[in-house]
Structure formats: C-alpha cells, structure tokens
Amino acid sequence: MIDSSVTASGLTSVISVEPSLIHMDYLLFENFWLCLLLIIWIGGIFYLSSSKGSVSRTFPYFAPVLRFLLPGSDAVALRKDYLVVRKLGHFFGYGILALLASGVFYNSSMPSLAKFWYLFAFLIVVVTAALDEARQSFYEDRVGSLSDVALDCLGGLSMITLFWIIAK
Fold this sequence. Notes:
Elements: E1 2-6, E2 12-17, H1 19-29, H2 32-48, H3 55-69, H4 75-106, H5 111-115, H6 117-136, H7 146-167
Antiparallel strand pairs: 1-2
Helix pairs in contact: 2-4, 3-4, 4-6, 4-7, 6-7
C-alpha cells in the first residue's frame, strides 16, 4: 500500500511505500531471465522436432564439417557419423534443458519447488522429451522414438546429478 498526504501546496506526495510491495516485485522477477532462457530452449527443441530438424534437411549443413573432421570417409560413413552427432545432440541438448530447469527450481522462492528442485527439473525433461517425440510422429520425414526419450532423460538426469553434486 502507498501512503500519501497533501502538502501545503495541495499536491499529493508519496511518503512511504510498504516494503512487501517491493518484495513482491522482486519475487516475480528473481528468476525471470533464467525462466526466459528455459522457455526459449524448449521452443528451440520443439522447432527442431519439426520437419526443419529432419536428417534430410540438416545433414547438408553438417556434412562439410564432418568431411573436414573425418577426411577420407565415404558417404555411408558420414551418414552414420551424423546420426551419432544427432544422438549426442539429444543427450547434451536435454542436459542443457535440465541445467536451466534445475536453476529455475533450485533458486525458487517457493519452498516446495526449491526443496524438490531435482524432481521438478526432471519432470520438465521427461514431459518435454515425450511431447517432442510424440510431435515428431506426426511428420512424414520424422520418427518419434522411445529410445530418444530415454536418451533425452539420461542426458537430463546426468546434468541434474552434476548440478546436485556442485550445489551441495
């Protein structure tokens, strides 16, 4: 609540601001940037789960890099290597998702979220991975896979475990 009074000139002036209002504004924005990064990262995951992230559309961008790193590889070997890179992308992409979610929940001002931050972070990983793979099954050039969900969850769980070790 804002207290005000009328001065000698008849204008209203603010005398004091109740501290709880300032505190509430702080609580609303304490994790704003981390939450924003988390939302953007999830958006990126869903963008890449569309046809735009299919092997046929992304391989041409990665093939020159793989040819440079692995000279003398034939086309079949490059495709296999690219699939390994994609699976590593799943693992580390969901690891980053877990890191962002861990930061949001670990630093939460809500005691239940902060106490069980690791469960909420893992829940974000599992739900995002499951929705991502389910979404891919609706595209002609994509395949939804339970093994990818498992790999995503493993990447997330690895990062949550690392975060837990460092945070303690």
